[in-house]
Amino acid sequence: MCGIFGYVTNKEEALGPILIAAAERLTYRGYDSVGAATINSGKIDLRKDVGKVDSVATKYNIAEMRGQRGITQLRWATFGEPSQVNSQPHLDSNGDMVGAHNGNVVNNVELRLEFMAEGMTVRSQNDGETCVHAVERYISRGYEFIDAIRLAYGDLEGDYAFVIGRANDDKLYAFKKGSGMVIGIGDGFTCLSSDLPSILPLTREVIRPQDGEIVTLWADRVEVRSVKDGKIIDRMPETVTESMDAVQKGGYPHFMLKEIHEQAQVARELIHLLDGSPDVQPLVEKMKNARHLYLIGCGTSYHA
Fold first, then answer.
1. Where in the chain are the domains?
2. d(C-alpha 206, C-alpha 222), whole Å
3. 244 near 200, Cβ under 8 Å?
4. What is the four-CA torsion angle of 92, 112, 5, 12, rounded to 10 degrees?
5. Over the stretch 132-178, which tens digit does the pLDDT of each residue have?
6. Phi, psi of 138, rounded to the nearest 5 degrees
7. Number of neighbours of residue 296 by Cβ within 10 angstroms
8. Backbone φ and ψ of 299, nearest 5°
9. Which of 76, 128, 142, 246 could in theory staple to 242 by disulfide, Cβ–Cβ 3.0 to 4.6 A?
10. Which stretches of the chain score pLDDT less than 70?
11. Cα(90)–Cα(135) distance, rounded to whole angstroms?
């Protein structure tokens, strides 16, 4: 988990600088890996590794990446150690789709085993790849792409936001469950991000998807559908008028207060993650034998 950004334009152009700039605006959340993917003329160009944005961008010359669609992701390791293979974005088995997520898929371990049993090529331990294969599963069974996403949404448990694109297509697709996502609408492009501040330098016209909604992004428009029945939802964009500083603070007077009020959501995400980890239950059993429980903290940790 950490942050995602996607971009769709109506022609091939240099997307590398746009993706690097968006990734830089997501770094405040902390991360250990970074990656970028562009899609152009039926081909996916994927570059990623462990390290800071500037070092990975320089090592893999991300600035030169071109395409009509692009995705970047900053990862903070949860499922799987920090490594190039666990970095995002991820490909499907045949390299025809690429996607990235922000959040935690708590049934990642179980789904990976299912996908391998079904003959898919699972390259990493990361739950972002699990999201890609969840869609691939239903594509391989003959479902249309939107229906495949609807079914995948039901299989993926946890809190996350996810974006995916196909090689022979002109769109990106995104959906969310519990985690944040904002869609941006600009002049000749659309974009999406897990964080509003990464969009504001590009556009202030935004749509905020709700849980259980699928967003399709073309260069000149977006479409919102219900996961439940696939029907189109009428959603008008809003104009963000707050300053960048105010947006980054989430309406709070300072970051400390923002962090304090975010603790409940952070705790929920942590519980989801721990529930899905096979390493946690043995620790829980040992803790049951403890005679005393001490909670130690200060500042926002004490508040939590």
1. 2-246, 253-303
2. 11
3. yes
4. 0
5. 999 999 999 999 999 999 999 999 999 999 999 999 999 999 999 98
6. -85, -25
7. 6
8. 60, -130
9. 246
10. 1, 79-80, 242-252, 255, 266, 268-279, 299-304
11. 12
